[in-house]
């Protein structure tokens, strides 16, 4: 019963509510203006499909499965890419927090450092006027986790993945580090690896922050629309567009 309620509830809030309204308009238009009704029906179906967990998981997992976590790490530095931060929000030892993806990446890097002793370079600047400087926040949080300052490098200027790669390459060159272990979200790894390759670096990919399970299952919840699923679909499409743009350059 609880799953039925969850499925029905998904049509009370956006985007499910919008899909219902559009479906109603299709019915109302069908006998009055057939061509506009058909166009609206196609748009409604596209909106519905793109907002389901089934579509989102299929798209995102196709990116996440392109790189596997290596069993052993044989690099000389752990490079972590940012993924958003808040400014002025309370934290245990200061202000500003990394968003979910960035925090997951940082946690993976901290655990890798504990296992390998490799230094960590965090790359990410202040992307927007009201967002936090990702690398500065990460540095404070790494210190709070007990990682020595000598093992922390930061690149706090980059605003996108291309700049992550270019500016990180410059810092690694100054420190004579040549075998970076790249830590970023699994869905972001294909595009990030390409950017670092274009910047002259061959990275050891260490994907983390997975959004889709290894084995996908089909149930009613997978077919209910949600804002989260639409966000996952949008994230996957953004990555594919970014990869396409890189390959066309």
UniProtKB/TrEMBL annotation:
CDD domains: YdcF-like. The keyword Transmembrane applies. The keyword DNA repair does not apply. Residues 76-242 form the DUF218 domain. InterPro entries: Cell_Envelope_Assoc, DUF218, Rossmann-like_a/b/a_fold. Keywords: Membrane, Transmembrane, Transmembrane helix. Pfam families: DUF218. The chain crosses the membrane at residues 7-29, 35-60. It comes from the Bacteria. This is DUF218 domain-containing protein. It comes from Paenibacillus polymyxa (Bacillus polymyxa).
């Amino acid at each position: 019963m609880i799953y039925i309620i969850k499925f029905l509830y998904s049509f009370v809030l956006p985007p499910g509510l919008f899909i219902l309204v559009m479906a109603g308009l299709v019915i109302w238009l069908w006998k009055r203006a057939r061509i506009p009704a058909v166009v609206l029906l196609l748009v409604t179906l596209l909106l519905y499909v793109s907002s389901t967990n089934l579509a989102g998981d299929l798209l995102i997992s196709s990116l996440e499965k392109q790189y596997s976590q290596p069993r052993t790490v044989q690099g000389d530095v752990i490079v972590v890419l940012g993924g958003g931060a808040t400014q002025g929000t309370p934290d245990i030892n200061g202000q500003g927090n990394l968003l979910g993806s960035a925090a997951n990446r940082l946690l993976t890097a901290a655990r890798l450092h504990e296992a390998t002793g490799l230094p960590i370079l965090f790359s990410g600047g202040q992307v927007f006027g009201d967002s936090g400087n990702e690398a500065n926040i990460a540095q404070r949080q790494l210190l709070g986790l007990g990682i020595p300052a000598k093992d922390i490098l930061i690149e706090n200027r980059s605003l996108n993945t291309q700049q992550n790669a270019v500016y990180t390459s410059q810092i690694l060159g100054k420190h004579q580090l040549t075998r970076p272990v790249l830590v970023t979200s699994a869905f972001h790894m294909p595009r990030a690896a390409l950017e670092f390759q274009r910047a002259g670096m061959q990275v050891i990919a260490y994907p983390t922050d997975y959004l889709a399970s290894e084995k996908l299952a089909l149930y009613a919840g997978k077919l209910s629309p949600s804002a989260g699923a639409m966000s996952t679909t949008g994230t996957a499409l953004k990555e594919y567009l970014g990869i396409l743009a890189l390959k066309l350059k």
